């Protein structure tokens, strides 16, 4: 079965900076179509949980205390790329808004809750290497498409079986 990378926090792992998760229950249904590989670039990059929140500012990642933590984010992104390349992963569902996983938006670097268009470090690296990156909403939309196709297939199969049954009567 093909593999898919999903932000660990979206699957309920408590990897967020504040020790919580971002669970989106429906996403576990991807296991019907893919081998799901949960991954948190910040934890894999060497950061602890909980941790001081960080945001991207002028191309660097800085913690709320002003420390440049870019190296952890780069390490997490490298590990994500290695895993994708080793496992042949071509699709990732990542938590939007995060300085690692954001696919469309990230926080604005001022720690005031504001967001700007942009990508997190890992999301950007994966995309550069041709891996398709979707946020959680797009992931759910893809999932409902896959589930719809699967239901259609099953309905056709059931109809075929009924036809065979009738012709055999
Ligand atoms: Fe979730 Fe990504 Fe943040 Fe880890 S780095 S907690 S996977 S959004």
If you had to describe this structure to a student in words, what would you say it looks like?
This protein is an alpha/beta fold and 169 residues long. Helices cover 37% and strands 19% of the residues. It has 4 helices and 8 strands, in the order ββαββαβββαβα. The strands form 3 sheets. It has a 4-stranded parallel β-sheet with strand order 2-1-5-8. The chain has a two-stranded antiparallel ribbon with strand order 3-4. A two-stranded antiparallel ribbon has the order 6-7. Strand 3 (54-57) and strand 4 form a beta hairpin. Helix 2 runs parallel beside helix 3. The relative contact order is 0.16. The model has no long low-confidence stretch (mean pLDDT 96). Iron/sulfur cluster binds at residues 7-9, 15-16, 40-42, 95, 98, 100-101.
Write a short abstract of this structure.
This protein is an alpha/beta fold and 169 residues long. It has helices at 41-44, 70-87, 121-128, 136-167; strands spanning 3-7, 35-39, 54-57, 60-63, 91-94, 105-107, 115-117, 132-135. The two termini are 38 Å apart.
Secondary structure layout plus pairing:
Elements: E1 3-7, E2 35-39, H1 41-44, E3 54-57, E4 60-63, H2 70-87, E5 91-94, E6 105-107, E7 115-117, H3 121-128, E8 132-135, H4 136-167
Parallel strand pairs: 1-2, 1-5, 5-8
Antiparallel strand pairs: 3-4, 6-7
Helix pairs in contact: 2-3
The protein binds iron/sulfur cluster.
Iron/sulfur cluster (SF4) binds next to helix 1.
């Amino acid at each position: 079965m093909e593999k898919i990378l999903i932000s660990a926090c979206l699957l309920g792992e408590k990897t967020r900076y504040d020790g919580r998760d971002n669970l989106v229950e429906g996403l576990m249904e991807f296991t019907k179509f893919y081998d799901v590989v949960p991954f948190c670039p910040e934890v894999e990059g060497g950061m602890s949980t909980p941790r001081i929140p960080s945001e991207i500012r002028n191309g660097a990642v800085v913690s709320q205390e002003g420390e440049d933590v870019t190296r952890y984010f780069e390490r997490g992104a490298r590990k994500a790329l290695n895993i994708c390349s080793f496992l042949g992963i071509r699709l990732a569902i990542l938590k939007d808004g995060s300085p690692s996983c954001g696919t469309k938006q990230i926080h604005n670097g001022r720690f005031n809750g504001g967001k700007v268009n942009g990508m997190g470090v890992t999301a950007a690296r994966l995309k550069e290497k041709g891996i398709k990156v979707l946020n959680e909403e797009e992931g759910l939309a893809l999932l409902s498409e896959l589930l719809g196709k699967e239901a259609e297939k099953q309905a056709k199969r059931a109809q075929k079986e009924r036809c065979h049954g009738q012709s055999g009567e």
